[in-house]
Design goal:
This protein has 291 residues and is of the alpha+beta class. Helices cover 25% and strands 28% of the residues. The protein has helices spanning 14-30, 65-77, 156-164, 184-205, 263-270, 273-276; strands at 2-7, 35-37, 80-90, 93-101, 107-112, 118-119, 122-123, 138-140, 143-147, 169-174, 177-179, 209-213, 215-218, 228-231, 235-237, 243-246, 253-258. The model has no long low-confidence stretch (mean pLDDT 97).
Length: 291
């Protein structure tokens, strides 16, 4: 399956961002892409650096204006498209939601981000209610997509449940970057940990993984920090964690890679982790802490 990841900078103009995305998708389609994956909250700047009620104006219903726009883009380019939107579900109820479009422009399914961070410059708990749809893959014409969002990518449980529910591939729209006060060595450790944990999901579950990240510097509107330098590094790895393609840390890129979904069957035969799981001894996983 030929897959495209769009790694890009974002501006304060949703219309400009959407036009740029549409152009990239058109280019990906012309190069044969069947599946296109976008980064987290791609319609806007990463607004969660501050807590401001005015930012709720960025949210929109699903279906709504953005879903109509991306449905038409998916249909025109005949691609399955993974998007990431700020969902206004009801007055006072908002989610960080991935919407997957089929090649005909219909909505194949949605996933609401389950794990919501609350860290300096990542004040997402102020904006997003945790998802309530569970870890259910989304069926499409190119396969069953195990879509999660950013902070979800650090948790092995979500990846495992997606795999147990029949996902063919794990997909993570992402917005993550450096904090300027950290040393270069610490920044490097964080970026490598980010890649390592997701490659671990690939190995543990025998599935390919796609991570599409933002890139570029976005200032903190409050001036309390020096903003976030998103580290890019969007990548695709195979079911043994092998890197199939990786973008740069500092440039916009359209990354296109062929993913052989048939390899998962072979890898799972060699490494039968699902066969040997001791599900009778995993009760502690449902508790906040063990002893």
């Amino acid at each position: 399956m030929k897959t495209a990841l769009i790694q890009m900078t974002c501006s304060a103009s949703a219309e400009d961002n959407k036009r740029k995305i549409a152009d990239r998708i058109s280019q990906a389609s012309a190069e044969g892409a069947q599946l296109v994956v976008l980064q987290e909250l791609h319609n806007s700047l990463y607004f969660c650096q501050t807590e401001s009620v005015d930012n709720f104006d960025l949210a929109e219903p699903i279906p709504g204006e953005s879903t109509r726009f991306y449905a038409e883009v998916a249909k025109t380019n005949h691609v399955v498209l993974v998007t990431s939107l700020f969902e206004r579900r009801a007055p006072g109820l908002y989610h960080n939601t991935a919407v997957v479009f089929e090649q005909d422009g219909s909505i194949a399914g949605i996933y609401r981000k389950m794990h919501i961070p609350d860290d300096p410059a990542y004040y997402e708990k102020f904006y997003f209610t945790p998802g309530d749809l569970g870890f259910m893959p989304i069926d499409t014409s190119v396969g069953r997509l195990g879509v999660q969002v950013c902070w979800d990518q650090w948790y092995p449980e979500g990846a495992r449940i997606m795999a147990l529910n029949g996902a063919d591939i794990l997909i993570f729209p992402t917005a993550i970057g450096y904090e300027s006060s950290d040393s270069p060595e610490e920044q490097q450790r964080q970026r490598e940990a980010w890649m390592t944990v997701q490659r671990g999901h690939a190995v543990a579950n025998g599935l390919p993984v796609i991570a599409a990240n933002r890139v570029g510097h976005e200032p903190d509107p409050s001036g309390a920090t020096n903003g976030i330098l998103f580290w890019g590094s969007s990548f695709v790895c195979g079911p043994q964690g092998e890197i199939l393609a990786q973008a740069s840390t500092n440039h916009e890129e359209l990354l296109i890679v062929d993913i052989d979904l048939r390899r998962s069957e072979s890898v799972r035969r060699w490494w039968p982790f699902l066969r040997d799981r001791r599900i009778d001894a995993f009760d502690t996983l449902t508790k906040r802490f063990g002893r």
